[in-house]
Amino acid sequence: MRRLILGLTLLLLVGGVAAAQMRIPGTGSKSVAAKPADNPATKQAATKKPPPPKGPPARELFGSVTEPAPLAARAIGSYAKGCLAGGVSLPINGPDWQVMRLSRNRNWGTPRLLDYLERLASDARALDGWPGLLVGDMSQPRGGPMLTGHTSHQVGLDADIWLTPMPDHIMTPQEREDMSAVSMLKDPFTVDPEVFTLRQVKLVKRAASYPQVARIFVHPAIKKALCQMAGQVGKDRAWLGKVRPWWNHHYHFHVRLKCPPGMEGCENQKAVSGDDGCGQELANWYAMLKKAAIESAKPPTPGAKPWTGKAPLTMAQLPKECGTVLTAGGFEPPVQGADGTALPESALKAMESADAGPALPTLTAAQLSALTGEGGGMPLPDRNPKR
Predict the structure, then answer these.
(1) Which of 25, 54, 109, 322 is least buried, going by the fewest C-beta atoms within 10 A?
(2) Strand runs (DSSP E) across 114-222, as ranges?
(3) Of 210, 261, 217, whose CA–CA distance to 238 is shortest?
(4) CATH of the domain at 20
(5) Cβ burial 34-62 (10 Å sphere, 16+ → b, else e)
(6) What is the DSSP string of 2-22?
(7) Which domain holds residue 99?
(8) pLDDT tens profile 103-158
(9) If we measure between CA atoms, which residue out of 49, 104, 296 comes closest to residue 189?
């Protein structure tokens, strides 16, 4: 009887996905989300559209699965709204890498991602002298939204790589839980030249050099340092175009691969422009960094509501095939009770694991005064390393 109830619940969830999608003539077999026409009549009708089916957030369902879907390997959907069929696990120990935070069970990906990581680890050691990769989060066994830490990493084509060199011994599982990555920053705008050196520059350049790489995400201060130091690792600057500034990537870099050729249902991002990104784009990021640093240094407003972010994705918002991926091999979703979904122990361990690295540095009182003009101080661009 319990299996019957669970099966009916999942059918309702997956059925909601089909109802939330439509086929557009001329798009072949691709399904796209239905959108109301942009006129007052349809806008009014759109407000009366029934809400998506209720049920556990997709992150609780995918975060509860401990094994891959027994299906052909396939990245389904987009990096931040999809799932992974036939996921393959990266061995926790390799000749040139070690996987961190094993309790999260996030060392899964497509065969393309595993091939890339193994080659990068080998090339970085043999050609650049990097001791070995410390690999952070990749994807869950069946991809999908995660319980903590990421919006992307959902289709087996993303991986976090620590900017901390690998130790000279095979770490125990507990060491991998306790060890923290090292921040590359001295302050919110500047890398620490004692920590971020040419070794890290060579590693990021090597990671960006392969044609299957779509993007690499780093903190804006790291991007600035890469722009300034690129000439010390060769004349080529084309690789810098793939390295994109993004929030919080101050102790690791995030590699994103392109969809494998011919993989139906996998959605690539728009290709990068080819510009090295060291001009106006980086200046714009520093303006945002300055604003964010000043805001974070202010005392909290009394009575202000805490920021909660976007509502978690539901199964109805994921590609229809993700329902099949979730239940393949007989997986039964956790039962949702009155007090929420009863997550299995494996999911609770993943949620309780320590952050991979330290928090972002904050402004001192003197730095805040300089930025706001109260203490004179140097303009923001001059606060960054010239090397």
Answers:
(1) 25
(2) 133-135, 158-162, 185-187, 190-191, 213-218
(3) 210
(4) 3.30.1380.10
(5) eeeeeeeeeeeeeeeeeebbebbbbbbbb
(6) HHHHHHHHHHHHHHHHHHTEE
(7) 2-34+51-296+313-360
(8) 999 999 999 999 999 999 999 999 999 999 999 999 999 999 999 989 999 999 99
(9) 296
